[in-house]
């Protein structure tokens, strides 16, 4: 989790392509997790919306050009569902990593039925309930950012608490955007620590509260970018707030994690496991 | 793009597992795009953070339980980088779709080097420049939502324009969250149409403006959820605003797309292709 001081990787004179009939987001995310297993830096090119023969032939030209330019076979991760488009891409001079064909064939055998070769179904979320849920959840999270509103907190799936700048806002937006989860967030501030109590709107919702904490050193760094030299950003004050917030969460029996060394995705996944707001989706 | 009236799929008495040493987001996204090739509805279970032998053995127990419960082999998509963890999972009674091993081996041969078997490197973004960029971009997008601020528009990578409720906010947040792109958004309102001009803050940034339009019928539906029966939401007014906005974008030479039948991901990918704000990332 902490190779941010890792030396720069040697550059491979080789291009990696992510070819998709949709956005290519899945092909890229997956291909990226494969190539990061090698200590080499690759030039990476996403080719989305390859959904007819002409575009596929154009993609082949680009792959072959990269071969001629570098003298090395490009690596091609593709998620083309339609066999006729996939077979055009197979003619390129790249090394083919076809995600769909590799796994669909054994599944057809296991399930005893044929696949439908339907493009982009997993992304077909416009006009559906799921799409509406996401937009609604984003609006909810924006309206309930930073304790702005106590209205409709009962409708929240999750309520994040933590000191200012502990990562609450990006996490609530991610939960809304990716999972359609209505996530409110509520800051814990010095007033709350002096009173020694959770903000008064919260106790009745304890079952869906989740806390974020953060290392005081990191918090001070982040706050100093916004308000350099302020008391708010001082290490001393950050230590005080973090200690108080953690003590309060322990006292109140609130589950929490430290966001310091975690990505937004990791924080969101942990919250999903702990609070299980998706169990009713 | 329009099977939202598709009949409910028959339910397969079979569980699909997504097993990962990280969040499992990639395994799930990819596995989902494979299983949606079959006209069956599966029970789906994500098992994230499987990063030691004990957790792997626990995952095996859950997979085997699903086998006993259903009488059908579960399907297991896994992205376990460490061979010792992967080999524990392989002992389960599931049908194994190992994304890493399947593609890493041929790549090792092609590249002539061994993979590093390093866990979660592609998600290792905490503490890095990339992570900071994303958080900064989210803050920028929030501060520049709905034309709230003209300050620092010169720092924006993209400025989205369009009528109210055309999908600008979710798109800017997605661009920020996924790509660290600073995206502002600016509404086009009846005042602008009467003046026949873009909002005065915008013309100097025309190179990075991108427009969203939407079918008037859909817009009216969306607006009616917020303000039922209002003039704002009426089909007549929505037709007027959409026509005027599209005419203005054509006149001003602004690239645009219709968000009506598109997912947030598809809109964002198209913007990346057109405006190329990531070329300097």
TrEMBL record, chains A, B:
Q: At the top level of its lineage, which domain of life is listed?
A: Bacteria
EC id = 2.7.11.33, 2.7.4.28
Annotated residues that bind ADP are located at: 162-169
The reactions it catalyses are: [pyruvate, water dikinase] + ADP = [pyruvate, water dikinase]-phosphate + AMP + H(+); [pyruvate, water dikinase]-phosphate + phosphate + H(+) = [pyruvate, water dikinase] + diphosphate
- Transmembrane region(s): none
**Annotated keywords:** Kinase, Nucleotide-binding, Serine/threonine-protein kinase, Transferase
The enzyme's main class, written as a single word, is transferase
Q: Which InterPro entries match?
A: Kinase-pyrophosphorylase (IPR005177), PSRP (IPR026530)
Fetch the Pfam families from UniProt: Kinase-PPPase
MF terms (GO), sorted A to Z: kinase activity
**Function field:** Bifunctional serine/threonine kinase and phosphorylase involved in the regulation of the phosphoenolpyruvate synthase (PEPS) by catalyzing its phosphorylation/dephosphorylation.
The Swiss-Prot or TrEMBL record describes its family as follows: Belongs to the pyruvate, phosphate/water dikinase regulatory protein family. PSRP subfamily.
- Mind telling me what this protein is named? Putative phosphoenolpyruvate synthase regulatory protein
Lineage runs: Bacteria, Pseudomonadati, Pseudomonadota, Betaproteobacteria, Burkholderiales
């Amino acid at each position: 989790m902490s190779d941010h001081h890792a030396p720069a990787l040697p550059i491979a004179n080789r291009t990696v392509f992510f070819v998709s009939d949709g956005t290519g987001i899945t092909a890229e995310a997956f291909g990226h997790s494969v190539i990061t297993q090698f200590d080499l830096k690759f030039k990476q090119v996403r080719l989305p919306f390859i959904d007819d023969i002409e575009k596929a032939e154009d993609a082949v030209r680009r792959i072959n050009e990269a071969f001629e330019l570098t003298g090395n076979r490009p690596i091609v991760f593709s998620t083309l569902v339609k066999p006729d488009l996939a077979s055009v891409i197979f003619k390129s001079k790249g090394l083919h990593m076809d995600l769909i064909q590799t796994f669909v064939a054994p599944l057809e055998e296991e399930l005893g039925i044929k696949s439908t070769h339907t493009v982009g179904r997993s992304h077909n979320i416009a006009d559906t309930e799921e799409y509406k849920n996401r937009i609604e959840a984003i609006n909810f999270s924006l309206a309930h950012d930073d304790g702005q509103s106590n209205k409709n907190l009962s409708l929240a799936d999750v309520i994040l608490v933590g000191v200012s700048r502990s990562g609450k806002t990006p996490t609530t937006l991610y939960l809304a955007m990716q999972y359609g989860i209505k996530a409110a967030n509520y800051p814990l501030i010095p007033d709350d620590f002096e009173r020694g109590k959770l903000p008064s709107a919260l106790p009745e919702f304890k079952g869906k509260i989740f806390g974020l904490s953060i290392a005081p050193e990191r918090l001070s760094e982040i706050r100093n970018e916004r308000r350099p030299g302020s008391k708010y950003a001082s290490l001393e004050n950050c230590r005080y707030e973090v200690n108080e917030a953690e003590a309060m969460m322990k006292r109140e029996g609130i589950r929490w994690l430290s966001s310091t060394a975690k990505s937004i995705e990791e924080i969101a996944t942990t919250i999903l496991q702990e609070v299980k707001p998706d169990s009713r989706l």
